[in-house]
Fold RpiR family transcriptional regulator.
Amino acid sequence: MNRPTSLIESIEQIAPSLKKAERRVADVVLQDIEGTTRISIKAFAAQAQVSEPTVMRFARRVGCDGFSDFKLRLAQDFAVGRMYFEAERKVQSGDAETTAQRVYQSGIDALATSFASLDERALAAAASAMAEAGKVVCLGVGGSSAIMAQEMENRLFRFGLAVTAAADPYKQSMLAAIADKGDAFVVFSVTGKPASLVHAAEIAAGRGAAVIAVTMPGSPLAARATILLPLDVPGDEVHFNFPNRTRYGQLLVIDCLSALVGALTKPVSARKLHRIRTTLLALHGHTDAQPIGD
């Protein structure tokens, strides 16, 4: 049996082996997790048709100090994993046409929202700082932002810039520690809360580097930025199988920065791209125009 990672998982695993009374407690909890977090022990015991001591024994069996502690941990687990637990209790459309339409519309809405909130002055200032930087460092953590940092590096290296990307928290701090005045740190975060990013941004800024944060306004990371590119894409109805659409907004910012940096660094960037294109011809022959070397 796999070791449970949450209180709800623990209850699901032990429920089949419980005696009759405690099994009723487990069943009532799993049937209405959210409701259990708001009910008194007296009302819950009546609902499960068991005694209050039975409820207390059950709470202690799953590692809680009492029913209040049980409700608190249950609420925390439910808040974190709500979309996953509810997915097992709801029938969602899984047909390709409906899914494609939802993903398409979600992307369009995210791009429109991000475009409407773009700060052109901040965008121009960020591109200028990156184009003039001694080195550019792109940082991000997590499933989306770490990849966005890598994509920013992928857009910039072909212009001949000294650029690196890092998702490892230790490496992020080390890169910040060796930052020089005139360097540029481009930091991606949907929430602006990851400690390693906030820490690295604070160190890099303290050493005189420009810290360009693509993140939520008012967040800890935003507070440490020298240039803020605000990104706040409201979430639509969230389901466990749909990726966070904020990444469309992140990609919009990346492509805008890349285009601006390329223009600011020409004619050097144009010569670099021409050399890349010439080299790639030896690998796959002639193709239609691909000026950025894709």
About this structure: Residues 67-87 form the longest helix (21 residues).
